[in-house]
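Study this protein:
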Amino acid sequence: MAEIVVKRWSADHFTLRAEKSRAGKCAQGGTGACGRDAEFTIVYPTGESIATCPDHLITYVRTRINDDER
């Protein structure tokens, strides 16, 4: 079973290096990939956090569930 940690977005979730995430923009797909505002923070299994918009959150959840079923 995939364990997924999601929080309401907050700049406090990110290091200074995570400029896009700290600025409240979706950081999924790297720099410039998504210009939408972040509404959530995903905490990866490695403990790293990333800001995400609702659409990319859904994509992440689907991917994790599909990977878990293999």
Summary: The first helix runs from residue 19 to 22. The mean pLDDT is 90. The helical segments are 19-22, 54-69.
